[in-house]
Design brief:
Distance between the termini of chain A: 29 Å
Largest interface: A-B, 48 and 52 residues
Oligomer: heterodimer
CATH topology of the largest domain in chain B: Butyryl-CoA Dehydrogenase, subunit A, domain 2
CATH class of the largest domain in chain A: Mainly Alpha
Shape of chain A: globular
Protein name (chain B): Acyl-CoA dehydrogenase
CATH class of the largest domain in chain B: Mainly Beta
Cofactor (chain B): FAD
Shape of chain B: globular
Strand order of the largest sheet of chain A: 1-4-5-8
Low-confidence stretches of chain A: none
GO molecular function (chain B): flavin adenine dinucleotide binding; oxidoreductase activity, acting on the CH-CH group of donors
Strand order of the largest sheet of chain B: 1-4-5-8
Radius of gyration of chain B: 23 Å
CATH architecture of the largest domain in chain B: Beta Barrel
Helix content of chain B: 40-55%
Number of helices of chain B: 11
Order of helices and strands of chain A: HHHHHHEEEEEEEEHEEHHHH
Family (chain B): Belongs to the acyl-CoA dehydrogenase family.
Distance between the termini of chain B: 55 Å
Structural class of chain A: alpha+beta
Mean pLDDT of chain B: 92
Strand content of chain B: 5-15%
CATH topology of the largest domain in chain A: Butyryl-CoA Dehydrogenase, subunit A, domain 3
CATH architecture of the largest domain in chain A: Up-down Bundle
CATH superfamily of the largest domain in chain B: Butyryl-CoA Dehydrogenase, subunit A, domain 2
Helix content of chain A: 55-70%
Largest sheet of chain B: 4 strands, mixed
Keywords (chain B): FAD, Flavoprotein, Oxidoreductase
C-alpha cells in the first residue's frame, strides 16, 4: 500500500514551499491589496520559469506532462502562501482543456499556458445563481449571452472557460477574451488580494468544451485541486494561531496554556487532518480514474471547506482585538476562505452532491 | 498512490488466508446464546490454534516468542481474521498492552514465565490502572504497595478493569512511596488475580451492560520478583502500556452503525413535507458523518502506508478516537431525532436499526471517556503535536502525601 504522494511530488512540494516562503510572504499579499495590476507580474514570471504552469500540460503541447499529484502539491503551496498570481485559475483551466479539449483547443491555449504567454480563468458564478449545476448564461449556435460574476483572475486572463446553458444542458464553453461581444470589468469582492471580474457576454463567439457530463467530471477534478489549495490556506492560518498562542501572555501565562485556546488549536488540527485524508483519497481517485471519484471529490471539498472556515475564523478569534485590526494578517485567511468557497460552490451544495453519490453507490450495491 | 499489497504483503496474505480458511471452522461466528464459560473456552481454543501455527506475537521479537515480522504482517493477519467474527477480544488487552509492557520492562525470569502462556491463550490478562479518584489524572492513584520482607502487600481499589473476572494475571500500578511527587512514587507489579484478597466485582454501566469490573485488593501479597521495572519507575512503565492502549481504542466499534444506516433510515422516515432524505439538514448530517467516519478510515490508511514503507505513522493517527466517539454520539442522536418518539421506545418491537442506534447513543457516552477523554486527547494533540505549553499542574512537584 502507498497512500501518499510520490517522492517526486514531495520533492516538488518542498521546492515550492521554499520558494514561496521566501518570495510570497504575506507582505506581498498586503502590497497586492493596493496594487493597480490585477496580479504580481514579477512573481508570476518566476512561477512560470519554475515550470508550474507547464506541469499538467502534455509534453506534445510544450508542457511537462506531470500527473495530478504534482498539481495537488502545487495547489497546496500556493494556498499556503496566498501568492497573488493567477495560478489556480490557469491550473483549473488547464485541467479542463487536458480532460476534454479538442486538439485545436489544446493547441490554441495549452502551449501558451505552459510558457506563460497566456493566462486562463474559469467562471460559473452569476451573482445570485444558486449552484454550479445551473447557469443563466445561454448559448445559441456558436454565440453566448450572459453575465458571469465573480470570475477569479478575469482581468489577468486571455481565455475564460464559463458554464452556460447549451442545447444538451449546462456545460463549459471557451471564450477568447479578445473577441468582439466580450466586455470585462473589475468586480469588488470580500477577498482584497485575489482579484475578480465581471464578464459580460453579448452574442459573443464561444466553443463548447466537452459535454454536460464532462463538465461534472471537471467539477470533480477542480474540487480536488481546490481542496488542496484550501488545505494550504487553512494550514497557514493554523500555524499563525499556534505561533500567537505560544507568544501572547494573558493573566500571567501564555494563552496557549489555556484549554479554551489549545482545544481550538487541536480542533483545527483534527479538521485539517480529516480534510487531508479525504483530499489524498481524491488525488488517488483522480489519478486512478477510480469509480468513487465523485464521492471522493465531494468529500474532499466539504472537509477542506470545513477546515478552512474553522481555521480562518478561530485564528482571528485567538488573536483577539489585534486580529481584528487592518494591519493584522488574520484578515487574509478570513477573506480568502470566502474566495475559495465562491470559486467552486459552497459546503451545502457539495454536501448534497456527496450524498447523491453515496445514494447512487448504495443503489448499485443493493 | 495505490492501495494494493506489496508482493511481500500479498504473499503473506495468501498464506494467512489459506490457513484461516482451513481452520476457522466453529470460530467463524459467536452465537448470541453462548455463556461465559463457553466463550472463554472457545476464545482459548482459537488462540491456541493461532499460536501453534505461528500467527501470534507477529511483530514481537523472536527472543520473546514472537515471529519477528513487521507491523504490516500483523495488519494483514487482522484484516483476514476480521472476515469472520472470531473470538479475539479476551486477549486484546493482555497481548496488546500487558505483555509488551512485561517484555519491555520485566526481568528475564518474568518473561520466561509469562509470555508464552499468554501467547498460547493458556492465561488471560487484565490491566489495573484507573481508580475511582484517578482517571484522567492517572498518576494520582492511591492503591498502595508496602514492602514486607521479600514481598509487597497491596491494598486499594481499581476500576474500569476489562475482563478482570476472567483473568489469571494483571499488571497493576501502585503507590510505593507517598513522600515522593506523584509521578515518582509509583511501581508496577504483576498480580495473580486468583490470590487471596483479590475480589473482582462487575461494574454496571449506565448503558446497562457490565463490560468492566471494580477490583478490590485487601492485603494481597506479591513477591518482589514480580515487580516490573525498578521501584519508583511505575509511571514510565505505565506509559508503555498507555501508548498501546490509545492505538487499541482508536477505531470505531466494528458493528457500530455509520452513515449508511443514517442514509437508509432517512429514506424510510417521512416528515411533514416528504421523505427525510430530501431535507437539506438531513443531507448535511449524512455528509458530516461520512466525512468523519471515512476520514478516520483514510487516516488509518495513511498510517498503514507509512508502516508498509517501514516508516513511523505520522501524528495524525492521534485524532482517531476523539473524532470517532463524538461522531458516533452525534450521529446516533440525530438518527433518534429522525425517528421521533419511535427512537425513544425500547424493547422487542423496536426496529433493529433503531435498537442499534439506541445502543450506540448510550455506548458512545462511555467511549468519549475510555482510554483518554475528549479533553485529555485534545490536550495531547495541542501539547505533543502542536507544541503548545502544558496545563498548569500545581501538584506536580509536591510530595504526594503533602498535596491536597
Amino acid at each position: 500500500m502507498n497512500f501518499d504522494f510520490s517522492d517526486d511530488a514531495k520533492a516538488l512540494r518542498e521546492q515550492a514551499r521554499r520558494f514561496l516562503d521566501e518570495r510570497a510572504t504575506t507582505k506581498v499579499a498586503r502590497t497586492q491589496m493596493a496594487a493597480d495590476s490585477p496580479y504580481d507580474t514579477m512573481l508570476w514570471t518566476q512561477v512560470v520559469e519554475l515550470g508550474w504552469t507547464a506541469a499538467r500540460v502534455p509534453e506534445a503541447m510544450g508542457g511537462l506532462g506531470l500527473g495530478g499529484d504534482e498539481a495537488c502539491v502545487l495547489a497546496e503551496e500556493i494556498g499556503r502562501s496566498l501568492a497573488p498570481v493567477p495560478f489556480m485559475s490557469t491550473l483549473l483551466a488547464t485541467e479542463a482543456l487536458v480532460l476534454v479539449g479538442t486538439e485545436e483547443q489544446q493547441t490554441r491555449w495549452l502551449g501558451g499556458f505552459a510558457e506563460g504567454a497566456l493566462i486562463g480563468c474559469v467562471g460559473w458564478g452569476e451573482g445570485d445563481a444558486a449552484s454550479p449545476a445551473r447557469a443563466g448564461a445561454k448559448v445559441t449556435g456558436d454565440r453566448i449571452t450572459g453575465i458571469k460574476v465573480p470570475v477569479p483572475d478575469l482581468m489577468a486572463a486571455d481565455v475564460a472557460l464559463v458554464s452556460a446553458q447549451g442545447p444538451d444542458g449546462v456545460q463549459l464553453y471557451v471564450i477568447d477574451l479578445s473577441d468582439p461581444g466580450v466586455t470585462r470589468e473589475a468586480a469588488d469582492t470580500i477577498d482584497l488580494v485575489r482579484r475578480h471580474g465581471r464578464l459580460t457576454l453579448t452574442n459573443a463567439p464561444c466553443a463548447p468544451l466537452g459535454t454536460p457530463d464532462t463538465y461534472h467530471e471537471w467539477l470533480d477534478r477542480a474540487a480536488i485541486l481546490t481542496s488542496f489549495e484550501a488545505l494550504g490556506t487553512a494550514s497557514a492560518a493554523m500555524a499563525m494561531a499556534i505561533g500567537y498562542a505560544k507568544e501572547r501572555t494573558a493573566f500571567g501565562q501564555k494563552i496557549g496554556r489555556y484549554q479554551g485556546v489549545k482545544h481550538k488549536c487541536a480542533d483545527m488540527y483534527i479538521k485539517l487532518e480529516l480534510a487531508r485524508a479525504h483530499a489524498l483519497h481524491g488525488a488517488w481517485a483522480m489519478q486512478d480514474g477510480a469509480a468513487e471519484l465523485r464521492q471522493a471529490a465531494a468529500a474532499a471539498r466539504v472537509a477542506s471547506l470545513d477546515a478552512l472556515a474553522y481555521c480562518a475564523e478561530e485564528n482571528l478569534q485567538i488573536h483577539g482585538g489585534t486580529g481584528f485590526t487592518w494591519d493584522s494578517d488574520c484578515q487574509f485567511y478570513y477573506r480568502r476562505n470566502r474566495a475559495i468557497v465562491a470559486a467552486l460552490g459552497s459546503k451545502t451544495w457539495w454536501s448534497d452532491r456527496l450524498v447523491r453519490a453515496l445514494e447512487r453507490r448504495n443503489a448499485l450495491a443493493a | 498512490m495505490d492501495f494494493n499489497d506489496t508482493p511481500q504483503e500479498a504473499e503473506y496474505r495468501t498464506k494467512v488466508r489459506a490457513w484461516i480458511d482451513a481452520n476457522i471452522g466453529e470460530f467463524r461466528d459467536v452465537p448470541d446464546t453462548m455463556d461465559r464459560a463457553d466463550f472463554v473456552a472457545r476464545s482459548k481454543r482459537w488462540q491456541t490454534k493461532k499460536y501453534e501455527a505461528g500467527f501470534t506475537g507477529i511483530t514481537w521479537p523472536k527472543a520473546f516468542g514472537g515471529q519477528g515480522l513487521g507491523p504490516m504482517n500483523q495488519i494483514v493477519f487482522n484484516q483476514e481474521e476480521s472476515r469472520f467474527h472470531a473470538p479475539t477480544e479476551l486477549f486484546s488487552i493482555g497481548l496488546g498492552m500487558c505483555i509488551p509492557t512485561v517484555f519491555s520492562h520485566g526481568s528475564q525470569a518474568l518473561i520466561d514465565r509469562y509470555v508464552a502462556k499468554a501467547l498460547s491463550g493458556e492465561e488471560v490478562w487484565c490491566q489495573l490502572f484507573s481508580e475511582p479518584v484517578a482517571g484522567s489524572d492517572l498518576a494520582g492513584i492511591r492503591t498502595k504497595a508496602v514492602k514486607d520482607g521479600d514481598d509487597w502487600v497491596i491494598d486499594g481499589q481499581k476500576v474500569w478493569t476489562t475482563n478482570a473476572h476472567l483473568s489469571d494475571f494483571g499488571i497493576i500500578v501502585c503507590r510505593t512511596d507517598p513522600s515522593k511527587p506523584k509521578h515518582k512514587g509509583l511501581t508496577m507489579f504483576i498480580v495473580d488475580m486468583h490470590a487471596p484478597g483479590v475480589e473482582a466485582r462487575p461494574l454496571k454501566q449506565m448503558s446497562g451492560g457490565s463490560d468492566f469490573n471494580e477490583v478490590f485488593f485487601t492485603g494481597v501479597r506479591v513477591a518482589d520478583s514480580h515487580r516490573v521495572g525498578a521501584e519508583g519507575d511505575g509511571w514510565k512503565v505505565a506509559l508503555t502500556t498507555l501508548m498501546n492502549e490509545r492505538l487499541a481504542v482508536g477505531g470505531k466499534p466494528r458493528h457500530a452503525p455509520g452513515y449508511a444506516t443514517l442514509l437508509d433510515m432517512a429514506k424510510r422516515v417521512q416528515r411533514d413535507d416528504g421523505a427525510a432524505i430530501e431535507a437539506a439538514d438531513v443531507r448535511q448530517r449524512i455528509a458530516a458523518t461520512y466525512i468523519a467516519d471515512e476520514g478516520i478510515k483514510l487516516t488509518q490508511m495513511r498510517a498503514l502506508s507509512a508502516l508498509s514503507k517501514g516508516e513511523m505513522p505520522g501524528p495524525e493517527s492521534s485524532i482517531a478516537k476523539v473524532v470517532v466517539a463524538k461522531t458516533m454520539q452525534d450521529m446516533a442522536a440525530f438518527a433518534l431525532d429522525l425517528s421521533e418518539s419511535g427512537g425513544f421506545v425500547t424493547g422487542a418491537e423496536t426496529d433493529p436499526d433503531v435498537a442499534r442506534l439506541q445502543g450506540s447513543y448510550l455506548w458512545s457516552a462511555g467511549l468519549r471517556i475510555a482510554g483518554g477523554t475528549d479533553e485529555i486527547l485534545r490536550n495531547i494533540i495541542a501539547e505533543r503535536v502542536l507544541g503548545l505549553p502544558g496545563d498548569l499542574r500545581p501538584d506536580k512537584d509536591l510530595p504526594f502525601n503533602a498535596a491536597a
